[in-house]
TrEMBL record:
Its cofactor is FAD. Residues 386-480 form the Alpha-glycerophosphate oxidase C-terminal domain. This is Glycerol-3-phosphate dehydrogenase. Its EC number is 1.1.5.3. It comes from Acinetobacter guerrae. InterPro entries: DAO_C, DAO_C_sf, FAD-dep_OxRdtase, FAD/NAD-bd_sf, G3P_DH_FAD-dep. Residues 12-328 form the FAD dependent oxidoreductase domain. Belongs to the FAD-dependent glycerol-3-phosphate dehydrogenase family. It catalyses: a quinone + sn-glycerol 3-phosphate = dihydroxyacetone phosphate + a quinol. One of its GO terms (molecular function) is glycerol-3-phosphate dehydrogenase (quinone) activity. Keywords: FAD, Flavoprotein, Oxidoreductase. One of its GO terms (cellular component) is glycerol-3-phosphate dehydrogenase (FAD) complex. The lineage of its organism: Bacteria, Pseudomonadati, Pseudomonadota, Gammaproteobacteria, Moraxellales. PANTHER family: GLYCEROL-3-PHOSPHATE DEHYDROGENASE (PTHR11985), GLYCEROL-3-PHOSPHATE DEHYDROGENASE, MITOCHONDRIAL (PTHR11985:SF15). GO terms for biological process: glycerol-3-phosphate catabolic process.
Length: 506
C-alpha cells in the first residue's frame, strides 16, 4: 500500500464541499501557500449557498437572541466584502414598518442603535425613524417605520469568485466529483473520488469536511466516525414575484410569530420574498417549497402591502437547507447562525476539520478561523491575506457607472441591459470576457435574453459550467426569462461543446 500511496498526488489540504464555506477555506489556504484540492459532488453553490436571501448583513434579528459576537463580526465583514466585491455587492436601505403590538418602538430604536455602532460602519448611512405617508406601498394603518442599511449580494457568484481566485492561487477545484471513501493510511488521508463513471484517488495531509447539509452524514457514512455535533436541518424558502412596488428599498416585515420576512428588489423587475424557518427531514437532493410556506409568505406580505399577492403571481420559488449546529433551541428561527469548527485527530495525529453552521456574510472569517485551527500542522503557513485583496472583478473597480460606460464604448450599440448585467456579474473581469472582441457581430449565437455564444464559451472555459442550470440559475439568473425552446437550443450547444472537449481528451 505504501508504494501505491507514493504514486498518488499528495496535497496539503483536501476540502470536501463547494459551497461558500468550502470554497472560502480553499481560497484562503491556497493564498497562504498550501497545496489545495477541493471536490464538489454537484456544481459550486448548487445547494444552500445559492438559496439564501442574497444579503450581506449583520443580522438585525439576531440581537434579540443576544448573539452580539456574531452580529459584530458580520457587520465588520459587511464592510470588508463591500470593498472586496463591489460589483456583486450593493448597499441597500431597509424599511421596518412599526407594528406596536409586536415590538415597541423603543426596543426597535435600541436595536438599531446597537446595529449602527456594534460594528465599524464606514460606508453606509445610519438608521433613522420614518413617518410614513400614504403615497408608499404599505397599508394606510402603518404610519411609523424605521430605516437602516445592509447589502444585497449575488450569492452564487460570491462562491464562484472565490473558486476562481483559489484556482489562480494554485488550488485544484473539481465539480461533479464525489468523495466516496476516505481513510488514514501511513499518516495521510487517502481519498477515493468518483467523477461520472471514473474513480481515482488522491492523498492529503489534512482534510476539511465542509459538506454543508451533508456534514454529519459524511462523517458517519463516509469516514465511519462519530459526529462531534448534531445538525439541525432548517429549510428556508423564497418566492420571486413581479415587482411589488417602485423604488430601491427592501422591507423587513414583522409577523405574529416574532419572525421576520424580507421583500427585496431583485434584478430590476422582480421582488424576492423570504425566508421561512422549518425543520427539514427529507431528501437533501429534493428540497422544495411547501404549500404551507407559500401561504405563510403570502400572508405576511399581504398584511403589510396595499397590493395583495395571490399564488398565481409567483414566478419562481427556491428552497435550501441551512445546516445549523444544534443548540437545542425550541424554535427553528432561534437556532444560532454562528459557526462551529470541530478538529479531530484521526489515529491520534492526522487532522480532520469539520464545519458546522455558518452564514454567507461571515464565510471569510470562518475560513480564517479554519486556518487558525490548521496552523499547527503547517508551520510555514503564510499570514492572513483575504481581508484586503479584491475578489476577481473587484480589482481596479471605480464605479458601476464607469464600467458600464466603458463596455458601451468598447462595443458599439451593445444593449444597456447586457452591459449592465455583465458589469454586475464580472466586474473588471469583463475585459477578459471581451478579449479580442470589439464588435457586437462577434458575439456568436444568440440564445436569447442577452445570452450569446461569447459568454457561454467563457463560462465553460473559466467558470466550470457543465449544464444549462449552471448557466441560467447560478452564473446568471436568466432562467427567469428562458422558455423551453430557448433552453433546448442552449443545451444542444452546451452538450456539443462539452462532447467535443471530451473527445479531444480521450
Amino acid at each position: 500500500m505504501l508504494s501505491n500511496l507514493k504514486d498518488l498526488p499528495l496535497y496539503d489540504l483536501a476540502v470536501i464541499g463547494g459551497g461558500i464555506n468550502g470554497v472560502g477555506i480553499a481560497n484562503d489556504a491556497a493564498g497562504r501557500g498550501l497545496s489545495v484540492f477541493l471536490c464538489e459532488k454537484d456544481d459550486f453553490a448548487s445547494h444552500t449557498s445559492s438559496a439564501s436571501s442574497k444579503l450581506i448583513h449583520g443580522g438585525l434579528r439576531y440581537l434579540e437572541h443576544f448573539e452580539f459576537r456574531l452580529v459584530r463580526e458580520a457587520l465588520a465583514e459587511r464592510e470588508v466584502l463591500m470593498a472586496k466585491a463591489p460589483h456583486i455587492i450593493r448597499p441597500l436601505r431597509f424599511v421596518l414598518p412599526h407594528r406596536p403590538h409586536l415590538r415597541p418602538a423603543w426596543l426597535i430604536r435600541s436595536g438599531l442603535f446597537l446595529y449602527d455602532y456594534l460594528g465599524k460602519r464606514e460606508k453606509l448611512p445610519a438608521s433613522r425613524k420614518l413617518v410614513l405617508d400614504h403615497q408608499g406601498p404599505l397599508k394606510q394603518n402603518i404610519v411609523l417605520g424605521f430605516e437602516y442599511s445592509d447589502c444585497a449580494v449575488d450569492d452564487a457568484r460570491l462562491v464562484i469568485l472565490n473558486a476562481i481566485q483559489a484556482r489562480e492561487k494554485g488550488a485544484e477545484l473539481v465539480t461533479r466529483t464525489e468523495c466516496i471513501a476516505a481513510e488514514v493510511i501511513d499518516d495521510v488521508w487517502l481519498l477515493t473520488l468518483r467523477h461520472q463513471q471514473t474513480q481515482y484517488q488522491i492523498c492529503a495531509k489534512a482534510l476539511v469536511n465542509a459538506a454543508g447539509p451533508w456534514v454529519e452524514r459524511f462523517l458517519k457514512e463516509t469516514l465511519k466516525l462519530t459526529s462531534p455535533y448534531k445538525i439541525r436541518q432548517i429549510q428556508g424558502s423564497h418566492l420571486i414575484v413581479p415587482k411589488l412596488y417602485e423604488g430601491n428599498y427592501a422591507y423587513i416585515l414583522q409577523n405574529e410569530d416574532r419572525r421576520i420576512v424580507f421583500t427585496i428588489p431583485y434584478l430590476h423587475e422582480y421582488t424576492l420574498i423570504g425566508t421561512t424557518d422549518q425543520i427539514y427531514q427529507g431528501d437533501l437532493e429534493q428540497v422544495e417549497i411547501t404549500q404551507q410556506e407559500v401561504e405563510y409568505l403570502l400572508a405576511v406580505v399581504n398584511l403589510h402591502f396595499e397590493n395583495s399577492l395571490i399564488q398565481s403571481d409567483i414566478i419562481e420559488t427556491f428552497s435550501g437547507v441551512r445546516p445549523l449546529c444544534d443548540d437545542e433551541s425550541d424554535q427553528p428561527s432561534a437556532v444560532t447562525r454562528d459557526y462551529t469548527l470541530a478538529m479531530t485527530r484521526v489515529n491520534g495525529a492526522v487532522p480532520l476539520l469539520s464545519v458546522f453552521g455558518g452564514k454567507l456574510t461571515t464565510y471569510r472569517r470562518l475560513a480564517e478561523s479554519a486556518l487558525d485551527e490548521l496552523n499547527c500542522y503547517f508551520p510555514e503557513l503564510r499570514p492572513e491575506w483575504t481581508e484586503h485583496e479584491p475578489l476577481p472583478g473587484g480589482e481596479y473597480f471605480k464605479s458601476m457607472e464607469s464600467l458600464i460606460r466603458g463596455i458601451q464604448l468598447r462595443i458599439k450599440n451593445i444593449p444597456l441591459e447586457i452591459a449592465t448585467r455583465w458589469a454586475n456579474s464580472y466586474g473588471t473581469r469583463v475585459w477578459q470576457l471581451l478579449r479580442e472582441i470589439y464588435s457586437f457581430d462577434d458575439f456568436g449565437i444568440n440564445f436569447g435574453h442577452g445570452l450569446y455564444q461569447l459568454e457561454v464559451d467563457y463560462l465553460i472555459k473559466v467558470e466550470w459550467v457543465q449544464s444549462v442550470d449552471d448557466i441560467l440559475w447560478r452564473r446568471s439568473k436568466l432562467g427567469l426569462k428562458f422558455n423551453g425552446a430557448e433552453i433546448v437550443l442552449l443545451d444542444n450547444y452546451l452538450q456539443n461543446v462539452l462532447g467535443n472537449q471530451q473527445s479531444k481528451i480521450a
